[in-house]
Amino acid sequence: xxxxxxxxxxxxxxxxxxxxxxxxxxxxxxxxxxxxxxxxxxxxxxxxxxxxxxxxxxxxxxxxxxxxxxxxxxxxxxxxxxxxxxxxxxxxxxxxxxxxxxxxxxxxxxxxxxxxxxxxxxxxxxxxxxxxxxxxxxxxxxxxxxxxxxxxxxxxxxxxxxxxxxxxxxxxxxxxxxxxxxxxxxxxxxxxxxxxxxxxxxxxxxxxxxxxxxxxxxxxxxxxxxxxxxxxxxxxxxxxxxxxxxxxxxxxxxxxxxxxxxxxxxxxxxxxxxxxxxxxxxxxxxxxxxxxxxxxxxxxxxxxxxxxxxxxxxxxxxxxxxxxxxxxxxx
Amino acid sequence: xxxxxxxxxxxxxxxxxxxxxxxxxxxxxxxxxxxxxxxxxxxxxxxxxxxxxxxxxxxxxxxxxxxxxxxxxxxxxxxxxxxxxxxxxxxxxxxxxxxxxxxxxxxxxxxxxxxxxxxxxxxxxxxxxxxxxxxxxxxxxxxxxxxxxxxxxxxxxxxxxxxxxxxxxxxxxxxxxxxxxxxxxxxxxxxxxxxxxxxxxxxxxxxxxxxxxxxxxxxxxxxxxxxxxxxxxxxxxxxxxxxxxx
Lengths: 331, 246
Known about the structure:
The complex is a heterodimer of chains A (331) and B (246).
Chain A: E1 2-8, E2 12-16, H1 36-45, E3 54-58, E4 63-66, E5 70-78, E6 81-83, E7 86-87, E8 93-96, E9 101-104, E10 109-117, E11 151-153, H2 159-165, E12 181-188, H3 197-205, E13 207-214, E14 218-222, E15 233-238, E16 243-246, E17 253-255, E18 262-271, H4 274-280, E19 287-292, H5 295-309, H6 314-323
Chain B: E1 2-10, E2 15-21, H1 26-42, E3 47-52, E4 56-61, H2 68-80, E5 91-99, H3 105-115, H4 121-128, E6 132-138, E7 145-148, E8 163-166, E9 170-174, E10 177-180, E11 185-187, E12 190-194, E13 215-220, H5 223-235, E14 242-244
Parallel strand pairs in B: 5-13
Antiparallel strand pairs in B: 1-2, 2-4, 3-4, 5-12, 5-14, 6-7, 6-13, 7-10, 8-11, 9-10, 9-12
């Protein structure tokens, strides 16, 4: 089903799912949503597969005209979406009609919003994923960002599913707050032994600012220098998501979803998975402070984070019970 | 050096680095491929992805299925009973390449001829194609092979100023390293030749022509052969020469 056409693409809107796995051994980065939990929640509200493809809108969103009646959900950073020029609630299922216009006022908090449509956006799978990888121009919509005139399709869904999810919303207390500052939890390693104790102390005692040279590949940080024991370079090895590498200029870089899979700078620490989504909402000028957790603490936090996103967990159920007996709006 | 004892390093909440040494070395890298092969055969529960590199393996695992400590135990045991004879033999892949024809290849190969004191382009071609190369790892770009085994004499420093675009298929030298650009890309390696083969194609399974651990043999071809093969590659009728070493 044709779901919408692009009137104006906005700064950067790409199709993303939860990423492309098992191909890093061939040099292919995972890509996927920078704030994966926001996309998962949007999909869950709509009863889509949690890995269904949505639109990642950076800094502001595209102006779209809907070509059919459907349901949508917008989650993630608050880019102030508007439907026919009226503020559109986020974190809930919204009905849209053929001819409706979606637009955005732009960033209020966070910087990446996720637009999911019932069924998910329908583009071909490339290496088991619908995620766009801009640098090598594949995945998503021909490996590129949305352009004016693009018409996107959605995977068909039954009317029962649509009726079933109408009115769902995420309870307010479960909606993450995005501020201009965040504490980012890391586990030391794999190459913390390449740094003297003073450098590690500086790393945890200082505040770092995200610079404009930051994108889906990585975030360059500005702040106190992290000096190495010896050389900054090491024999290239694998780069995990969230690796904090420190090149010769002694300024840390956090590697994100479109990172190169191998790299030769010493890696001081690794951001825990639950805080990657937090980083995904941070923009140039935002500040972070690193906080050390142990491997076992990190894995406990990961476990709790996964549970929160598990099927059947609160966001949807609470939402359903909350709306029971309530009039379905716009219906 | 190759460590006397393998190191198992924490890399966040769901990755482990299995590190065998800290240099670029064929014996060390061969160990990486042997352990990767053995791990693929063993199919440990909870291990999701393996990324072989020069001197280590990045192992992505699911800590709700296997703990770091349990994974380390399994890997230590696996390494102890590593039986090389049971591992699949590496593939040997023939890569046709036109050497020193057209720019930037002509200038770069002439530079290598001079820098190596081999004196002639023909000398570079003969030496370059006289060896088998080992694919240390795929990285930098999708499908980009880092090749080991180049004769030391051919080692040439990178360009002072990287080129804005190096064409896909260019075979380059950077110091003692050798690699092939899978897509047009900026790059500072000295490009001595070009292969008509496609190194990366997202619709292939797997998407990369070469895999870590493969052996590569370069075969010098003429510009006419290049055009002929390029056409076949485009039509999808080119059959790459792959043999399995015994």
